[in-house]
Structures are given as structure tokens and as C-alpha cells.
């Protein structure tokens, strides 16, 4: 099981969009996947067509974490209701551990080291999935650190803009310090470039800067700025099933990134 956090200390750069694009790629490839929505705003849950009911949300089970407890709260993404695979084949697995404002009790910077094991604990023994994607809030709080502690890989999302490059530096520095603490093994980091515009010299300049700063950690391919992304999310639909050329380009790029992640 590959556990991947999608993170950035800067808000609005496309963390949830990347999580959703990779989930769509996994669904298209038939890879059993769980999306954990750690952000109290629960945007990923909304776009996956699910809502937390009662205390069946990730924040509630992280209060008093029990081994494997995530299985008690997972629901199938609405995306799986209309599979493109033949009826005779097994229903594809794309589950969600829904987010809600409840997780904001952990959206703070004060925490004990043992608290950082909470997410790892609720995932322990769960073997239904090949891939777990964790959508993180845009801050270095207990939630983000719990996600990093539970992950094999951390992807930092960056837009090709000055402020976002600076935010990526902060994220990668925080991640290096986290790894350096030797308490956790987070072996791989990557930088996903999102919302790049062709023929826009400022973007070309910032993408070069990201390559200079992070070298091979910059994930190939980069993701274009594509307004269709907002339509797809508004319809709570997977990009791999959205018609048109713009969605097809996005879908292909997410599939390539996913293949690289799972290699
Ligand atoms: N490649 C893209 N092309 C066009 N629009 C995009 C792209 N990526 C993201 N967006 C849009 O940008 C907005 C912010 O994206 P998103 O919510 O994924 O960012 P985020 O990092 O998760 O934000 P937050 O920090 O609030 O959690 C959304 O409206 C989303 O649809
Ligand atoms: Mg988000």
C-alpha cells in the first residue's frame, strides 16, 4: 500500500485538485484507492460526492485513535456509482474518509510527538487499498505532520509564481526538518507544478527556478492551467470521464504522474 500526502504550506495552489486528479487516474486504472480528507474545509469530500454523517469523519476517529478505525468511516465516492467497466466486472474501489470541521481540533501547531502517530494508527492493518491519498490543509499543523508521519511520499504542490515558489521552499524545508528528526521515515518528496500557462514568460521563469531549486524532485509532467478543472470539480465528476480536449490533456497528465508514483 502506497500512502501519499498532497501538501503545501501555501493555500489555494491546487492540493485538493491534485488529490482529485490522482484519484480519478487511479479509478480509471482500476487501482483500489482511499482518499483521506484531512482538511477541515472538506473540499475533496465535496468533489468526490460524499459528506460526513454523524461522527463518521476523519477528525472524530483521530480524537481517540484505534487500530484500523478508518475502515469504520469510509464511504464509496459517488464517482463509482456509474462505472465505465462492464457490469460483470467487480465495482471499482474509490473510498473516502470524509473530512469535516471536526478535524479542526487538530489544526493547531501545539502537539506531542506521540500525537503524530494518530493517523498511522487508524490506518494500521488496513489492506483493502493499493493507494492512499491524503489531502492536507495549507498549514504546518498537527494534521499535516500526522499525514507526513503516515506517508511514504509527500507531494508539494506549487504554482509557477513568486509567492508559491517561496511557499514551496518553506514546505520542503519543513519536510527536510521533519525527516531529519529521525522519528519518521518519509523517504520521497516531489514537487508538482500546477496551473502553468504556455507562452507566459513569468511562468516559464518560475518553472526554471523550481527546477534549479528542486532538480529531480520536480514531477514530470507539469499541469496546465485549465478552466475545465473547475467545471469538473463543480460537477463532482472524475476528470478522466469529462468530455473534451482540455480534460483529456489533464487526465493523461494525472495518469502519467500516478504511474510515476506507483513505480
Ligand atoms: N490546473 C488548474 N487549472 C485551473 N484551475 C485550477 C487548477 N488547479 C486548481 N484550480 C482551481 O484553483 C482553485 C484552488 O484549487 P484547490 O482548492 O485545489 O487548492 P488547494 O491548495 O487545495 O486550496 P486550499 O489551500 O484552500 O485547500 C479551485 O477553484 C480549483 O478548481
Ligand atoms: Mg484544498
3D structure, described in words:
The chain is α/β, with parallel strands linked by helices. The protein has a single domain (2-262), classed as Rossmann fold. It has helices at residues 15-29, 43-47, 58-63, 118-123, 142-150, 162-180, 201-214, 228-234, 245-262, and strands at residues 2-7, 33-37, 75-76, 94-97, 131-135, 153-158, 188-193. The chain has a seven-stranded mixed β-sheet, sandwiched between helices. Helix 6 links the parallel strand 6 and strand 7. The radius of gyration is 17 Å and the shape is globular. The protein starts with a strand and ends with a helix. The model has no long low-confidence stretch (mean pLDDT 93). The chain binds adenosine-5'-triphosphate (ATP) and magnesium ion. Adenosine-5'-triphosphate binds at residues 11-17, 39, 43, 138, 194-195, 223, 225-227, 229-230, 233. The site of adenosine-5'-triphosphate (ATP) has 19 residues, from helix 1 and helix 8.
